[in-house]
Specification:
Two copies of one chain form a homodimer.
Chain A lengths: L15 H8 L3 H8 L7 H14 L5 H8 L4 E6 L5 H16 L3 E6 L4 H9 L8 E4 L18 E4 L9 E5 L1 H14 L5 E6 L7 H16 L8 E3 L5 H13 L6 E4 L2 H13 L9 E3 L16 E3 L2 H17 L10 E4 L2 E3 L6
Parallel strand pairs in A: 1-2, 1-3, 3-4, 4-5, 5-11, 6-7, 6-8, 8-9
Antiparallel strand pairs in A: 10-12
Chain A binds a DNA duplex through helix 2 and helix 4.
Chain lengths: 347, 347
DNA sequence: CTGAAAGCGCTAACAA
DNA sequence: TTGTTAGCGCTTTCAG
């Protein structure tokens, strides 16, 4: 931001020129001091520093950016911050970026395919050094749109094999582990909330696949009646899907919400219907939202390594930014570690 | 972001110079076309536009910013996005900013006083045009730190009468209205969850004041036993405070959570203890979080005008940015409209 | 209607 | 160790 001083009357901010004049040295010397260049005589440095303090000089970041070609800003594009998962992801990215001396500009796409595609070519985020992009509306057919002329890191499970670095969680393995966890606790009829019919890629499909793998490995049958589809993954959807399943009179001894929000919604319906959790039924979520620690009972869930996703996304992006111009490496896929967070909802 | 083209081999992005050369005109003419300057001959415009397309020219925002003194970026500083209230606030600010052609950079302070103060003088956000600041750790004693040399808008209830524009909700009136709503429905013993002992300013104090005013106006006694203090305003705090009140055997016919998160936590405990909501007890929240529409029962709450807060904050900030250098107006306080959102938890 | 040129504030090569 | 100077890419007087 532009600097001015004195209350009421605004003065033009001090420049390197001003400081140089004040200190009786050249502009280069001031620049050296500001940038902690080593070869500056101590007395000179002190003199310049004094001038800097008196004039309350602060470097003009815009000018610096123009000169250096870097802004120190990265962009993060998510569907919407109102969804806890993305809010917590953004939180993680901001923290990780801060550790690397970067600052984060956030765009919301609403999960709309067209807006996502438009964003990629938008001139709006052109003063950031790169983009961390979490698409929701685009799918693998749109992957070519990801071939953008600036550093980008892709997040999530909508698109695989695109032309950019990709950081994502081990959805299949994690869902399989979650299901195995339930099976190991003696559960045999595990309902799933949040399936997307006919989807082959995407979080829902991958997690459902993990679920099926676990059943198969344990020799348990896959029962279509235990699959509760939902359109979106909001709490309300979990609520409705669970209610529908109860109404159908399906028997089950555990519920696996494909994300925490769904699981919390389902849990609510179960308790309303007088099911005891975990006595009558186990409930498992996915995402490890903050909230799951505080629900009643606290929700057992899969920690997809969100902190690691954020940290790695920033790191990978930074690597690409640093590699500008050099013969670039082929896009890599980075998978994060997951862990089951065992809480009260599973015994 | 820097533009390059061709897969694999990165080329320097096209500049105005390049386009001018390609089109056989001067750089000024290209600039005119890019900026939709009116007095350009149609044929010239077409010629230039062709060159722009061929070279995939995109203006360098950094250079433009240096020249114009504006970046089109504003910063938003909040405690943390993991708290739904701030995530939804950020959502609103991003949307409002977008309507004004601005983009938003988000900083997290953790609600820590020292970090908040440090942020205000940090050089990190110097490439934004202004700041929307929602402090949580600072208090009125720190108000002088808000006298910064760049446009700023203050949000929230921590500091009043500071040297900057302030956008805030009508806490006292809104809490009073909420309480009156409960009273009008026949409630006489209204428990409060989330009070902060000894606080005189801040959301908790103001909302408690509104509660007391409503009681007084209705001729109802203020009973200290009905006040449930909490340190923070997380779901868990609501849960604990409600539990404590039940353990103390206090009688009540309504619960007013000073924010939604508290109310949802309290609601959970009540249901666990077999209270029927709203049959046995009414529950009222404050904030109108998205989630309150989907809880069971859906939570009646106060909509503090968050969308309006976001919109107004951006608008006021933009006014200040525009008024740079001119004799500035004294700081103003802007109060938003509130509304009771009546849902299932109150009958 | 279009061109020439100055300069936003800074960094960095090159000189001294 | 410090000074001089040429741009980074753009907007914007001022001429023509």
């Amino acid at each position: 931001m532009e600097i001015a001083k004195d209350v009421g009357r605004r003065t033009a901010p001090a420049t390197l020129q001003d400081v140089a004049a004040r200190a009786g040295v050249s502009i280069k010397t001031v620049s050296n001091v500001v940038n902690d260049y080593t070869h500056v005589r101590a007395t000179t440095r002190a003199k310049v520093q004094a001038a800097i303090d008196e004039l309350k000089y602060q470097p003009n970041m815009t000018a610096r950016s123009l000169r250096s070609g870097r802004t120190g800003v990265i962009s993060l594009a998510v569907p919407e911050l109102s969804l806890s998962y993305f809010a917590e992801l953004a939180d993680g990215v901001i923290r990780a970026a801060e550790r690397h001396g970067l600052v984060v500009l956030i765009e919301q796409t609403g999960g709309d395919r067209d807006r996502e595609i438009e964003l990629l070519t938008s001139t709006r985020l052109h003063l950031s050094d790169g983009l961390i992009f979490s698409p929701l509306g685009m799918d693998s057919d749109d992957a070519h749109h990801l071939d953008v002329p600036y550093p980008m890191v892709l997040l999530g499970e909508r698109i695989f094999g695109g032309p950019v670095d990709h950081v994502t969680m081990r959805n299949v393995e994690a869902a399989r582990a979650a299901t195995e966890f339930l099976i190991s606790r003696g559960r045999k009829r595990i309902a799933v909330i949040g399936a997307h019919e006919g989807e082959v890629v995407g979080s829902a499909a991958l997690r459902l696949q993990g679920y099926r793998e676990a059943l198969a490995a344990a020799g348990l049958p896959f029962d279509e009646a235990l699959i509760g589809p939902t359109g979106l993954w909001h709490r309300h959807d979990g609520l409705v899907a669970m209610k529908a399943m109860l109404d159908r009179g399906v028997e089950f001894d555990a519920v696996f919400g494909l994300n925490d929000t769904l699981a919390l919604g389902a849990m609510r319906v179960l308790q309303e219907a007088r099911y005891k959790i975990p006595d009558d039924v186990f409930v498992m979520g996915f995402d490890d939202l903050d909230e799951t620690q505080y629900s009643l009972p606290a929700l057992t869930t899969v920690d997809p390594g969100r902190a690691e996703i954020a940290e790695m996304a920033v790191k990978v992006l930074l690597d690409r930014i640093g590699a500008r111009g050099s013969r670039s490496q082929p896009p890599l896929q980075h998978l994060t570690e997951f862990a089951i967070r065992e809480r009260e909802s599973t015994g």
